[in-house]
Amino acid sequence: MAILRLVVRRLLSSLPLLFIVSAFTFVLVSLVPGDPARTIVGQHATEEQYENVRAQLGLDESLPVQYWNWLEGVVRGDLGASLFSGEPVTAMLNNRLPVSLSLIIAATVVSGIAGVALGVLSARRGGALVRTVDVLALLGLAVPAFWLALVLIAFFAVQFRWLPVTGYVPLGEDPVEWARSLVLPVVSMSLSAVAIIAKQTRDSVLDTMTKDFIRVMEANGFRDRSILYRHILRNAALPVVTVLGVVMVSLLAGTVFVETVFAMPGLGGVTQQATVQHDIPVIQGAVLYITVVVVVVNLLVDLAYGRLDPRVRA
Amino acid sequence: MGMDNAKKTRQGLARRVLRRPAAVIAVAWLVLLVAATTAAPLFTSYGALEQDLGNVLEGPSADHLLGTDVLGRDLLSRLLFGGRSTLVAVAEALAVFLVIGVTLGLLAGYRGGWVDWLVTRGADLMFALPGIVIVLVVLSVFPGNLHAAMITFGILGAPGLIRILRAQTLTIREELFVAAAKVAGLTHGQILRRHVLPRMASIIIVQGALFAAIVVTIQAGLGFLGLGAQPPEPSWGGLVADASQSIDRAPWMLVPAGVPMVLTVVALGLLGDAIRDAAIENWAVSRSSSAQPGGRPAERIPAQRAAADDAVAAPAPDALLSVRDLTIEIGGLRVVDGVSLDVAPGETVGLVGESGCGKSVTSLGILGLIPGGGRITGGRVVFDGVDVAGAPEAMARIRGTGIAYVSQEPMVALDPTYAVGRQLAEAVRTHRRCDRKGAHARALELLDLVHIPDPAAVARRYLHQLSGGMAQRVAIALALAGEPRLLIADEPTTALDVTVQAEILGLLREIQERTGMAVLLVTHDWGVVADLCRRAVVMYAGQVVEQADVDGMFAHPLHPYTGGLMAANPHHAVHGEALPTIPGTVPAPYEWPSGCRFAARCDRATEECAAAPVPLSLPVPGRSTRCIHVGSLLQEGGLR
């Protein structure tokens, strides 16, 4: 019951974010020199045709009215149609959402496990492993996913032919090929994520190790394994979870690049295409979808916090 | 700190940064890069658009140092000319980032109130967005306009800087010299410029370097997506895109397309790290140089062992715990110096002294758990006939079952993320073989033993739902889980209310009577000693200075420090009279004199006191003291 209340409260408090982002997009788009109607009818259309299309798209209304109409559409699940293909935006994005979610979730799981393991190991062992995490952190900052992806393709897809160069196979179609098509994109996205998580985990574990209650447990003979895996890890997890949320949002942003490299039909790829094609309704829809994913990620972080920390639960 | 001072530290900072090899290499690479891109024609004889269709997709050669692309264009030339747009992009984004970040960060931290509220909320909101998506929206509206994209990216990056600078400004604002500057009539602008901003220079530079690093990859990313410079104009991102087109025929192209970019980001990252480390070092140096005027390494302090010490050097045969000559060093500094003490089975011994005398470190040293990377460098800790000082495994085995531990601050002594009952059950299962159910039942028994009302309900609670007194009872229950023969209690009542203190002490006495457990009670409170202890050991500056049965000690202290401590005890205060205190403070380990360590604060001190180390002597059977004036003390007390 308490959790339900938390979910509702968080969702309500994220409404301003959704409004501001969509309104910002709207205002920005209204600055476009020329308008979508012109793009649709083309250069040789008559003024009458142009006006018709304008009215059809609702572009003859004032900006607030247009925004209101768009919001009404959102509630009905109607985000308009692509200027380019005429496809309904909602259907288009719904098809593409699972691709991006597969990528983000897989990359989060991979980098979460690898990052936490590396962070804990380096906190415990110290020495060379501490340096490894620092070097990794620097590489994670320096090696952009789109370039790393190409290098991986050059080796593992072109040279050795172990994995597909590009493309995406839906999970329902062929689970094995689905997994194979995800390997390279996920690995290239995960480098910086692993680095960020490993660094936070190491710092957080080292910090928790100095806490009074850890010393009390040691002094009273608790087993080392239990102290590390039950108590230090759980207490160190809170800041790591926060970072995990930040990482998921940046992975979401990373889909723009990685989906383009691997020609995957996901949200990031569609945003990139729509940007190149100035397909305004698609961009507005994609921004909405992406913002919703961010809201959900933040909600998950909050829920994880509640599970890990009894003080938040109360 | 005035402006001159701040300027000086900044110059010092630059010098310290450049003392690091990594920073020198990073700076060299960045300087080379800026020079080579701005003066590109000097470094390459080819134009960026010059095609040579006879030499396409070549590897590196003398003619083309980095090879050629699919149109036979020289890659070095494209790299250098393309770098120009990168530099412009970094400059634009960085300028926006710094102006907005510094202005709003300082403003929010300095003004507080609604300005702070507004800025913080706005920053939080922007922080939640995936920046690149917003940049794409901007680019869809202003096609190919990289300037707009970079300005947007600068704005989207600023909240990170705002947050950091706001927090910094908040702390600096509270400092004295800012208040003084206000009194001196400086305007807010002057205060911010002269006093606040210089203090944050290194943070701003570090954040700027990191942000520049991100901008390099983002700008390249946009170029790669075809949203930056339009072909055939060269850009770093465009190079990667070109390389991706011929990845099956000329994978080499990925190297010139990506490696310089990666190196540039690495250089910016290393530079940022170096500046941060140098700034921390600067802070640490100025701290330690002012804190340790006469800093002396531990090695030079002679081990103060004399004939009388040897007399007590053998462990007492009937003692449960017998510590002999225990010496502990932390960071190479001796903090506990040859401590010997005994605890007999069932006995309660007080370990007394002001804070900073080494009581807590001694008690943790007995358990082999010295904080701050310290270690035992000498002496023995004999528990139940076995020396555990140099034997970590033996020591680990007695923790909990042989010796248990209760700490000073109960509200941080339990894991806040587990319910009380689960922690107790874990302690039970650590020490005895039983199932979950049995452990839980035993946990409830333990809670009952420490007089927790309704144990079943309290077992389900978390630390933050307990009062200080309850938490300390639970901590004691936790220590009792292994049925220890000795309990080390480090100031177990100091953090508690007076009424609760008495309850906890009563509880300890009751448990002791019931179980026959011995207690080593660390305290600075003579009331507690009188109440609970049979014998007391007084520590000063890392040494034992007096040891006696409590009655004898109260009647006639044989060390001036003991006497001074007792006189300063608020329990003995006479209403209306000032409480007598010992002048001065306990010397820190690096300030220990070679003679009597208490001499500087002692009203009996003579020249002899400072001349040589004072050994422990045994003037009366069962008592020892480290005072050369023990003869006159004895006479005054009429003990001889």
Walkthrough of the structure:
Chain A: InterPro entries: BPD_transp_1_N, MetI-like, MetI-like_sf. Chain A: Residues 97-301 form the ABC transmembrane type-1 domain. Chain A: Pfam families: BPD_transp_1, BPD_transp_1_N. The complex is a heterodimer of chains A (314) and B (640). The longest helix of chain A has 38 residues, at 224-261. Chain A has helices at residues 2-13, 15-30, 36-41, 47-57, 63-76, 89-125, 128-142, 145-159, 175-209, 212-219, 224-261, 267-277, 280-308, 310-313. In chain A, 80% of the residues lie in helices and 0% in strands. Chain B is of the alpha/beta class. Helices cover 52% and strands 11% of the residues of chain B. Chain B is built from 25 helices and twelve strands. In chain B, helix 10 (201-224) runs parallel beside helix 11 (236-245). Residues 286-311 of chain B have low confidence and may be disordered.
The CATH class of the largest domain in chain B is identified as Mainly Alpha
- The CATH architecture name of the largest domain in chain B reads Orthogonal Bundle
The domain count of chain B comes to 2
CATH superfamily name of the largest domain in chain A? MetI-like
Secondary structure: helix percent of chain B: 40-55%
The low-pLDDT segments of chain B are 286-311
Q: Work out the helix count of chain A.
A: 14
Please give the structural blueprint.
The complex is a heterodimer of chains A (314) and B (640).
Chain A: H1 2-13, H2 15-30, H3 36-41, H4 47-57, H5 63-76, H6 89-125, H7 128-142, H8 145-159, H9 175-209, H10 212-219, H11 224-261, H12 267-277, H13 280-308, H14 310-313
Chain B: H1 3-18, H2 21-38, H3 40-43, H4 75-111, H5 113-127, H6 131-141, H7 146-173, H8 176-183, H9 188-196, H10 201-224, H11 236-245, H12 254-291, H13 307-311, E1 321-330, E2 333-343, E3 348-352, H14 359-366, E4 375-383, E5 386-387, H15 392-398, E6 403-406, H16 420-431, H17 436-449, H18 455-459, H19 468-480, E7 486-490, H20 498-515, E8 518-523, H21 526-532, E9 535-540, E10 543-549, H22 550-555, H23 560-567, H24 607-611, E11 617-620, E12 623-625, H25 630-637
Parallel strand pairs in B: 3-8, 3-9, 6-7, 7-8
Antiparallel strand pairs in B: 1-2, 1-4, 4-5, 9-10, 10-12, 11-12
